[in-house]
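[job 0412] stage=complex_fold ligand=magnesium ion status=START
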Amino acid sequence: MAIERTLILVKPDGVKRGLVGEVVARIERKGFTLEAMELRTLEREKAEEHYAEHADRPFFGELVDFITSAPLVAMCVSGEGAIAGMRTLMGATNPLEATPGSIRGDFATQIGENIVHGSDGTESAQRELGIFFPGRF
Ligand code: DAT
Ligand code: MG
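[job 0412] stage=complex_fold status=DONE, emitting structure tokens
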């Protein structure tokens, strides 16, 4: 397994609920490395680019409204197998199906407010890191 970089977001619900430290602690405790971290409110244009794969889904408008509604924390996280490893730490997209012990399994009930984002593959990680940290990774 290679060293990988992935884009992790603590979404606006996670920031509002004071879960940034909890998420960062889990990432660090696992042994992954924080390479960059920024608190920011995402511009609508960037949110639409980030979620472009979902542009035709019925929930796209709500998804973009939500992710731009308040500050989020964007991180570049690296480590051995970090892309899949972070997806495991996060848990399933639907928090009611996420394993207890995972971030979504422990802290969320609604699919639309599931605390965290993590890239789902090497190509999406590269693409998404380019949106949040242009020219850096
Ligand atoms: P993930 O965030 O686990 O990669 P995804 O890429 O399929 O999941 O979807 C992106 C986000 O869109 C997800 O975190 C929450 C929202 N979402 C997905 N499916 C949804 C649905 N059926 N209804 C409402 N929101 C949904
Ligand atoms: Mg996804």
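Helices lie at 12-16, 20-30, 44-50, 60-67, 82-90, 103-107, 122-132.
[job 0412] exit 0
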